[in-house]
Write a structure and sequence with these properties.
Number of helices: 3
Strand order of the largest sheet: 1-2-3-4-5-6-7-8
Strand content: 35-45%
């Protein structure tokens, strides 16, 4: 094997791994993360109003996310919800990092070591009460609120934005919030 061929396989492998890691932190091509994002105003508790179903939140209702900053300025994530089939509360700890400029709502989040996925704030009201979150592709979408409900006009606006991006909003699960005993949540 000559020297040139010796480097081909490692180079192709490195490019493939890099592509995998960078593609896992992206945003749907028709979506844009918001500008003038203020992470300090975004911190605190958010309730999941609607989401696309996927295996990590399967059978969960009463779902919420709590965000805080760590000493490095990264966002510490505590997701929790009630598994209505197993009759127990579940939680997942994660870490979110900005993918670039910290004034743009484009982050990557990980719940499993070095594997990150896109977390993109694509709509947010001026008072930081309601947020529309896009994942890395059209399989991931969340509507969040500081309260367990959302006004109809905000809901309608978010659904319009998601539809324009290409999301099939008929697939959204509307989350029930009928419990107040989440051991992982600092509820008032």
């Amino acid at each position: 094997m000559n020297l040139q061929n010796k480097w081909i396989i490692p180079t192709v492998l490195l490019i493939s791994i890099s592509t995998l890691f960078f593609s896992c932190t992206s945003i749907p091509k028709s979506a844009t993360a918001i500008q003038n994002f203020d992470v300090n105003r975004y911190l605190g508790t958010w309730y999941e109003i609607a989401r696309f179903d996927f295996r990590f939140e399967k059978d969960l209702d009463n779902t919420s996310a709590q965000y805080s900053l760590n000493e490095k300025g990264n966002v510490v994530v505590l997701n929790s919800g009630y598994n209505f089939k197993k009759n127990e509360w579940k939680k997942a700890d994660g870490l979110a990092k900005f993918r670039g400029d910290k004034t743009i709502g484009a982050l990557k989040v990980s719940f499993f070591g070095p594997f990150y996925s896109g977390y993109n704030v694509i709509a947010l009201d001026d008072d930081y009460q309601y947020a529309l979150i896009a994942g890395k592709n059209l399989d991931y979408l969340w509507i969040l609120s500081r309260n367990k409900t959302i006004p109809e006009e905000v809901k309608s606006n978010f659904l319009d934005i998601a539809t324009q991006i290409g999301y099939d909003t008929k697939k959204l699960l509307w989350i029930k919030h009928d419990r107040n005993n989440n051991p992982y949540l600092n509820e008032k």
